[in-house]
Amino acid sequence: MKTYVATKNAGKLRELQELFAGSPFELNTFDRYADVDENANTYIGNAMLKARALRRQLNDAGIQAAVIADDSGIEVDALDGRPGLYSARYAGIDASWTQRRGALLAEMEGVPEPDRTARFVCVIALISPSGEPAVAVGTVEGFVTEREAGENGFGYDPIFFYKPRKRTFAQLTAEEKNAVSHRRRAADALLSSLRSHV
After folding, report:
1. What's the CA gap between 108 and 118, in Å, rounded?
2. Any idea which architecture 2-196 has in CATH?
3. pLDDT digit string (tens) for 40-79?
4. What is the residue extent of each domain of the chain?
5. Which residues of 60-76 are buried (b: 16+ CB within 10 A; e: fewer)?
6. Is 37 a catalytic residue?
7. Among the options 31, 35, 71, 94, which is catalytic?
8. What is the average pLDDT score of the chain?
């Protein structure tokens, strides 16, 4: 089933394509996708905002297809769950990912290792061609490092330490990360939910 993803982030699209490989969904982007203002107060709300916006844009272009959108963030316990929903806008809406990571590391300066616990959260929203919505959530626990490590991944991966693999997400191969990530868990939960309703 041809399915459009509400993103302009090539890294996120590639990751989602790998996660949904072997599923009924063939993921693509819509080159005219226009970002939506992510002003909901939950990950689910933001994912649905993006999914509905993309669906409207496809309908306006005469395309009827399934759409997928995700919203994700890093929640740091020492910062009372920040940046959370605002992970992609942390340090300012026009900040680079290097600047966002730097701002987070600066805010965490002096926090001892046992208190640097954090988690990645991902919500994936699907709207079927007929308009039926489905939502799934995935999380993965880890720690915020004191400095960046690794060249892979994107976003906050270089400062997110995954204890079972003793490396940051950016030090894992794509296959290793995709086996354990928050998006993996959300994708699995979504596919499992869809299978149970077939």
Report:
1. 12
2. Alpha-Beta Complex (3.90)
3. 999 999 999 999 999 999 999 999 999 999 999 999 999 9
4. 2-196
5. eeeeebbbbbbbbbbbb
6. no
7. 71
8. 93
